[in-house]
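Try this one yourself first.
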């Protein structure tokens, strides 16, 4: 077996706790994260299907009664992490955060099922998982798109998964920081502060979190009156693809998919309104302040993953994607390097993330096979050369953030071993 495949498996099992897996093996993220767990499950499915299903099952054990799957589950409440379970003060059976994260579970589960032999017992487990995923998708439709536009909102930058992206600079500048705000960060003690969000970002994150908590995370209230409400094109692309994959899963298990089918039709029609013909890219929209967000983030290209049925737009996107960071050694930088907000080392403002490359590789497979293969090979090479890290410099591939990073290991396994 290839040394790197062994190493990737070792990282996943080394970061595994009882039924769930930490994003890394240091104190940076001492809990279970929503979309990390989905990627991690995909990695496990190459060598331990039961671990994969258990990872998903444990995540869904923390689902709220209304259907929301939180972005963090605090199985271990004794941590120095901030914001910890007491700062959020919520959760159903498991202490959790009061917000969610990109809903990629349906797409991941479909891929796991497609490439594995499933036993009768596992089929029963999977059916229960699908029912819970459906409930979470219906939660998004009901509470994050009350106007039935086909596009859902995020109510905190953390919900996007790309926390300090410059996509959020303008909407965040409008957030008035709470007076006498008090909290104690731990992330910038564990990792070089130059690689982490700024203190002013955290002031605003915590202000938004405190506002959500004051409103008791009431989904109707926080949509109307939250301090941050953005239609993020990357998040919606992931949700559109997840809804398409969920329909396939529901049909496979003879479950009703009509509500999701109807929603996909509305999304497919309305998402095209977020295409800027002049720039040849999609944009996000600050719903609270009624303003377009025209920041060149790599996540704007996740629309390729959503498989919209428009060859002309797809071709324009691919043409522009190839120019995203043409002059840099490694792709894809999270923000286009010639943009004023680009920062080579600061988290989601410049570094290369394996999951973004993975989304785009998957999205291009049926649109530009040659280029998708190039992305796949380049990403594999980056990981094999630099190791399984959280993110990397687009200029020299220098690893940054956490070491032994679970989703980099998991997605490496998928890129290396998948024929999907």
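Now uncover the answer:
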């Amino acid at each position: 077996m290839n040394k790197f495949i062994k190493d990737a498996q070792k990282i996943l099992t080394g970061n595994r706790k009882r039924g769930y897996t930490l994003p890394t093996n240091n104190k940076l993220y001492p809990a279970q994260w929503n979309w990390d767990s989905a990627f991690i499950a995909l990695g496990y499915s190459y060598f331990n299907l039961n671990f994969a299903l258990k990872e998903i099952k444990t995540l869904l054990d923390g689902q709220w009664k209304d259907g929301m799957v939180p972005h963090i589950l605090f199985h271990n409440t004794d941590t120095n992490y901030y914001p910890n379970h007491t700062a959020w003060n919520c959760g159903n059976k498991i202490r959790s955060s009061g917000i969610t994260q990109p809903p990629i579970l349906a797409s991941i589960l479909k891929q796991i099922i497609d490439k594995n032999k499933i036993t009768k017992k596992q089929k029963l487990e999977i059916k229960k998982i699908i029912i819970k995923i459906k409930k979470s998708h219906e939660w998004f439709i009901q509470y994050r798109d009350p106007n039935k536009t086909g596009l859902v909102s995020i109510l905190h930058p953390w919900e996007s998964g790309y926390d300090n992206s410059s996509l959020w600079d303008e909407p965040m500048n409008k957030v008035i920081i709470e007076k006498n705000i008090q909290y104690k960060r731990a992330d910038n003690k564990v990792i070089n502060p130059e690689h982490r969000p700024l203190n002013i970002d955290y002031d605003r994150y915590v202000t938004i979190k405190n506002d959500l908590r004051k409103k008791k995370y009431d989904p109707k209230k926080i949509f109307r009156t939250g301090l941050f409400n953005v239609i993020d094109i990357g998040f919606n692309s992931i949700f559109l693809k997840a809804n398409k994959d969920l329909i396939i899963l529901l049909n496979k298990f003879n479950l009703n998919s009509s509500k999701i089918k109807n929603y996909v039709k509305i999304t497919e029609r309305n998402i095209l309104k977020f295409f800027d013909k002049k720039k040849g890219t999609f944009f996000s929209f600050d719903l609270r302040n009624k303003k377009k967000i025209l920041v060149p983030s790599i996540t704007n290209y996740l629309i390729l993953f959503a498989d919209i049925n428009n060859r002309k737009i797809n071709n324009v996107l691919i043409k522009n994607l190839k120019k995203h960071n043409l002059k840099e050694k490694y792709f894809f930088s999270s923000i286009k390097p010639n943009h004023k907000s680009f920062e080579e080392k600061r988290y989601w403002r410049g570094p290369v993330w394996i999951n973004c490359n993975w989304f785009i590789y998957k999205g291009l497979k049926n649109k530009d096979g040659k280029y998708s293969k190039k992305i796949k090979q380049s990403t594999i090479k980056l990981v094999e050369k630099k190791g399984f890290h959280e993110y990397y410099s687009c200029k020299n591939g220098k690893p940054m953030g956490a070491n032994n990073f679970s989703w980099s290991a998991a997605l490496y396994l998928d890129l290396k071993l998948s024929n999907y």
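Discussion: The radius of gyration is 20 Å. The chain has 17 helices and eleven strands.
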